[in-house]
Amino acid sequence: MNEHFSVLLQESINSLNIKADGIYVDTTLGRGGHSSEILKKISNGMLYAIDQDEQAIKLSRAKLNKINSNYKLIWGNFRQLKFLLALEGIFKVDGILMDLGISSPQLDQANRGFSYRFDGPLDMRMDQKQTLTASIIVNTYPVDKIIRIFRQYGEEKFSLQIARQIEKYRKTNEINTTLKLVEIIKKSLPQKILKQSKHPAKKIFQALRIYVNDELSALKDGLQQAAELLNTNGRLVVITFHSLEEKIVKDFFRSLTISELDKIERNLPIRLNVKHDFKLITKRGILPTNEEVQKNNRSHSAKLWILERT
Fold first, then answer.
1. Which of 135, 170, 173, 179 is the most buried (most CB within 10 A)?
2. Could you tell me the pTM of the whole model?
3. Alpha carbon of 140 to those of 133, 171, 174, 205, 259: distances in Å?
4. Residues 156, 244: contact at Cβ < 8 Å?
5. Cβ-based neighbour number of residue 20 at 10 Å
6. What pLDDT, on the 0 to 100 scale, is given for residue 1?
7. Cα angle for residues 258, 7, 197 (degrees, 5° grid)
């Protein structure tokens, strides 16, 4: 199993402007890499770390215990962020981190079904308590719906061909494993695509994972609640990994920092001194260094975005 590297670790921690007595939230605990660094900087503050993967919570606890006890681990989805924090009596915070990547241990555990490199059940659930799996989608969903999922969440040009090949195969057999799905995907694609360096199943696996976990809707809900929770000078730091996440984050941040008056002001000879509740710290996402990408290739598509309440 590959070691888990926390993407853009120092960049994200520095972006939070952590105060020793502040209250911070890591909405995607994972294996505790970002949470550990936050915890090191709060001597009498508090960290609330959330994850819907019970295994992540179990494995991270021992890691965080070695630092200090100023933390609380919470099982749940960040689309319920305000509710989960309200249960802890928390209604305002000084910083929130949302790392939208899937952790390396999850990818590398064949039994979780996230990886197209290892054979395992076609699962892909972050929350093992939910019922919908990738297997249910490819074996029971109408072909036109499968095509829409592949196009919308994977931006796959060959969605129609792949969905038709799935339909053909499932007439006589169930598609229950990751490598069986990879085999079907490869049969659907032209040789010129198969010869490319990018894995031919990458976009389809991304699409299924996003749909199974309803990731984009959860992201929209989580962003809105995160912004509402911030104290003055508090920051929301988000790490995206693909264009669908990036668009949602950029559009949301712009909606809070650019108004109709700003657009009008551009054509006026005077300044209207329009005030906003939020300030965009990063107009373009912060990228990982070449050194980080060489150490952890999974970080190559990552971008970091920062929003501050004024």
1. 135
2. 0.90
3. 11, 11, 10, 17, 45
4. no
5. 9
6. 41
7. 100
